[in-house]
Amino acid sequence: xxxxxxxxxxxxxxxxxxxxxxxxxxxxxxxxxxxxxxxxxxxxxxxxxxxxxxxxxxxxxxxxxxxxxxxxxxxxxxxxxxxxxxxxxxxxxxxxxxxxxxxxxxxxxxxxxxxxxxxxxxxxxxxxxxxxxxxxxxxxxxxxxxxxxxxxxxxxxxxxxxxxxxxxxxxxxxxxxxxxxxxxxxxxxxxxxxxxxxxxxxxxxxxxxxxxxxxxxxxxxxxxxxxxxxxxxxxxxxxxxxxxxxxxxxxxxxxxxxxxxxxxx
Length: 265
Prior knowledge:
- It contains two helices and 13 strands; from the N terminus they run αβββββββββββββα.
- By secondary structure, it is mainly beta.
- It has a single domain (24-264), classed as Immunoglobulin-like (Sandwich).
- Strands 1, 3, 6, 7, 8, 11, 12 and 13 form an eight-stranded mixed β-sheet that branches. A five-stranded antiparallel β-sheet has the order 2-4-5-10-9, with no helix packed on it.
- The radius of gyration is 19 Å and the shape is globular.
- The model is unreliable at 1-19 (pLDDT under 50).
């Protein structure tokens, strides 16, 4: 009987360990951040780029989940189960990390890897110099095409950027078309700006459902901060590089929250 009970308990624990993968929710209120503000913190350990977000539990997460974020598609977007982008950034001395959980009912990627914007894809719009005008100096793209995760560089900065580590993984817990994106990009492939604690840049992700309208909706959906044209740096939000994302023995963030927050002001 004891062996049977032990087997049952171990089975339950196994189920929770398998099904208990971290799926993010927006937490900017805990950092007292305003709309259009986020923080990239330094992780306790280098994240493994595997499409699992357990390494991201203590990051600052932002959600695009309202009509306010719609640059296009107000007649096509059907709410949070249709498309929600919850994203975060982290960094260390050499690398910029980006992750996103996409809640979606249909995943419809482009057919041509050279034209990822014709299907579901993510762009980052980055004004590294914080000029605040003109086209952003950085524009990486992440796409899952022909069952392969791809990084493209539409900012034209470095031919090595497509070699960045990336994982894009179907995630049914986020809907039939749900996906997790996780990317690690060396700073030397992204910018000449020397990133350090306290650096602020213009920034927004942009989620494209496809200019070729592969989902056959009334219009194409594109989501980004403020729902304004992200190819104009004046319309970007602000991402500030903060301090360590430290946790205590109970798995809770320590006073480092406050140290992170001060850099966003």
